[in-house]
Amino acid sequence: MNPFNNKTGRVVLGGAGWSRQIVTDPTSKPVLETILHALSLGIRAFDTSPYYDPSEILLGAAFSDPALTTLYPRSGLLLMTKCGRITSNKFDYSPPAIRASVLRSLDRFSTNYLDVVFTHDVEFVSREEAFGAIKTLFEMKEEGLIRHVGISGYPPAVLADIAVEVKEKFGRAVDVVQTYCHMNIQNTSLKESLGRFYGDGGVGVVLNASPLCMGLLRRGGAPIGELGDFHPAPRGLREKAAEAAEWVENQGIGSSMASLSLRFAVGEFARVDEKGFGVTILGGGSIGEIDENVETVKKILKREGGDGDGDLRGYTKLDEERYKADEALFKGVRDILGEWVDYTWDSPDAAFLEEQKKLKE
Known about the structure:
Elements: E1 11-14, H1 31-40, E2 45-47, H2 55-64, H3 66-69, E3 78-83, E4 85-87, E5 90-91, H4 95-108, E6 114-119, H5 127-142, E7 146-153, H6 156-170, E8 176-180, H7 194-198, E9 205-209, H8 235-249, H9 257-272, E10 279-282, H10 287-300, E11 301-303, E12 315-318, H11 320-337, H12 350-360
Parallel strand pairs: 1-2, 1-10, 2-3, 3-6, 6-7, 7-8, 8-9, 9-10
Antiparallel strand pairs: 4-5, 11-12
Helix pairs in contact: 8-11, 9-10, 9-11
């Protein structure tokens, strides 16, 4: 099942911008005002996680506020969250913990159902643990507490394996898959797994998160929040990304690396993902960032009717002419990235695996 339609559009606002991984003191941000502004632009789908502390708490308070609920009925919103990941190195996929996490999220959002709940970073746990958590989410879907069941994580190939195995084991498919950093100007390897997701996996829609590779593909590089530099990209990739950003600015086209990278991610995914039409999760923890990202999306997508008026939900078709106009710039950036094109880091990495091994000894 695909929860996205003409009421929700093809863009999601991600909640990591209100996490301590990304920013310092996210509680000081005007979250309600920012969410109301996003809604005024036509964004209707929102994604967060308890792991993005305190994002789920802040978003839950915003979506429970009468200033929002009186203007935007719950039925017109798509609220997504995750479960299973506690900290950077702690996971609890046990059925009781999964159920408790979902119930807590429902309470935080003051809602009696969530549109999508994902198992968070499912590649970090055993298949047995993953299946136990997914089974619990299927049960909560039957109870009406969840509309759609999803899995999320970094490596598309691993997520595709899990999706196929879920369908074989349970006789039903996960509805939504969310992966990140695999459909952007540096890495497009998500497209290699789309056939398995939509074919043997029976997945309804695949979401592409981190179109800027967790902030790496922009001037200034990856953001550093209260928890320090969490980005797993090696020095060589960071240096080439910075070089590419400087090259884009020196082209005298009035564009930035961030804008170009977002146009590529949204445009390329729309081009290759015909079934789900490339639903992209945008960043944006402030009104200014959301405005910039929405305007960028409108430059690479166009409305069904062909005009440029209206809110973001109407922008569902790839603007082929604009995509072609950007191709030389896309190629220039990827040429600079060179050997780092389609590079992926290990998830989980060796340090995590070694730590888990010691805990079991």
